[in-house]
Amino acid sequence: MANMTNKKAAPKRNAASSSNPFSTWWNQQSGAIKFSMERLWFNPVSTWITLAAIAIALSLPTSLHLLLKNMQTLTADNREIPTITLFLKQSVTEQQAKDRAELLSELPEIDNVRVVTRDEALADFRKITGFAQTLETLDENPLPHVLILTPRLSLLSNLDMDIDSLSKKLKTYPEVDDLQIDVEWVQRLRGILRIAERIVLVVSILLGMTVLLVVGNTIRLDIENRKEEIRVTQLLGATNAYIRRPFIYNGIWLGLFGGVLSLVIVHIALLFLIEPVTKLASLYGSTFILSGIDVLMTLKILLASSVLGIIGSWIAVGRYLWQDDSVIR
């Protein structure tokens, strides 16, 4: 009796599962995913050539963006904030220099003040120039006390105007003999970075269109090879969504795997650049280290490459379906 009940209940469960919209949707998606993966590697040589073209097209804007990101750290780092050097008069004593430094540190425009005494400056000059014996012949130290000021950039909305007004204010102090602003290189670098941002944007758009063309052309060739199969499927009642689905997944795989391959290319290039860049930075007394691609940037690249694959395949399939409908009409 129990066996008969189970036999009668089994068809009911199967009917319920078949009528479940999520189960039906998932079966369609899983079938399209499996078919697209098999179709992707049906011709491995052609697939690898397509993936290589996509990877090269994606690796160039990725490398430019990474280069721009590393250059921006030169101006974002607090240690690289432009400084103002105050050369005090020879008559100013060390205590007077420290008193003036303490007063300057209380200004809202100043973040930090460092005092370099004439003895410290002379010792540094000896190390840099190597004229130790010549300097010993002098009767007195010719170097003045120096104050190195770091502006508070958070309060300076306009770097050019505010630094200029601050320098005029500092020149009014009686202890100040001369003033030097180390800001020109920052202005030039920021100007270069603004141009570089535009270049990276233009290159990214152009190479993104290249990826669309590569994916679209690959899907178009696949459609041509399967044209008779698609016609038969349409005669059996297949909808446009059913026909489009495996090609969309095929575009996703092309974009995703091409993005992964582009990341591999960029990482290999970084391995070749880390050592010479570190040596060059050490020659300038900097601790700059070339940074790589973080997790967020990796996800963005993979997402962008997948979206480009979807758009390229959607355009190719949509164009075929539109032409096919026109012929039928």
TrEMBL record:
Gene3D superfamilies per the UniProt record, alphabetical: 3.30.70.3040
Membrane topology note: Multi-pass membrane protein
Annotated compartments: Cell inner membrane
Pfam name, any one: FtsX
Major subcellular location class: membrane
Chain ranges of the ABC3 transporter permease C-terminal domain: 202-319
Spans traversing the lipid bilayer: 45-68, 199-219, 252-274, 295-317
InterPro entries xrefs: ABC3_permease_C, FtsX, FtsX_ECD, FtsX_proteobact-type
Region spans: Disordered: 1-22
Record keywords: Cell cycle, Cell division, Cell inner membrane, Cell membrane, Membrane, Transmembrane, Transmembrane helix
Protein family per UniProt: Belongs to the ABC-4 integral membrane protein family. FtsX subfamily.
Protein function: Part of the ABC transporter FtsEX involved in cellular division.
Name of the protein in its database record: Cell division protein FtsX
UniProt source species: Thiothrix lacustris
Lineage, broadest ranks: Bacteria, Pseudomonadati, Pseudomonadota, Gammaproteobacteria, Thiotrichales
